[in-house]
Amino acid sequence: MYSVERKSEIITMLEETGSVDVNVLAVKFATSKETIRRDLRDLEKDGVLKRTHGGAVLVEQSHNTSNSSEYPVGIREIQRFNEKNQICKKAASFIQEGDTIFVDNSSTTIYLSKYIPPEIHVTIITNSIKFLLESIKSPNYNHLIICLGGIFKDRNLSVYGNGTLKSAEEYYPNKAFLSCAGISSHNMLADSSIHEIDVKRMMIEHAQEVFILADHTKFQKGSQIFLSSFSAIDYIITDTQTDKTNLEYLDATNVKLIVAD
Fold first, then answer.
1. If you average pLDDT over residues 242-254, what whole number do you get?
2. Is the pTM of the predicted complex or chain greater than 0.90?
3. Do 241 and 83 meet the contact criterion of CB atoms below 8 Å apart?
4. Rounded to 5 degrees, what are φ and ψ at 239?
């Protein structure tokens, strides 16, 4: 198991129980205690946990209106790492030759670039600096990437503001791939970043098809800022842990629920 996968599971365990034990983790992941301690040191540096004698405890994130209780993007991208990769792989299967797509700045869509078929020609519009950094790991001249302008936000590795909106209004992509903070049964998708919400709304309005990439933790969950009603969404792509029995409210909409396996 890779370090990023271990850290992802450690964060999940911390969120569920509030604490973890080095000995238990070493057995669970079939690795050495020193490897676990190194993972915990890394996560402590990132502000996720506080190490204790023999383990660690979760550090509660501060709440505010601009960023909710979210971790920095570097931590959010490893939360539910496997599920996000499954979702992105399925989402990439909808991208076709000649498409122009928008990819938002979210910890889920970050992984989309590595699953886009390398042989197809596609134009990718984004306001995500992190997405750009992921893309250059496997550069492909068939994939033209357009980065929107704007104010740089270091915590989220994104750009936002009036300059971003002015850049975005020029584009009408075939498909938009976005995530959100919560999907509720009250005909609402919600998000947590007031800085980036406007460009997301614009791209939802401009795109011919809209894909929401959301892991199982996003359902029946609210957040501070209204993003969109279901009427503007075409697809929701989620992972196999999503309990579909609680999603009957989607039957009354035109949204297609797709499970990535």
1. 88
2. no
3. yes
4. -105, 175
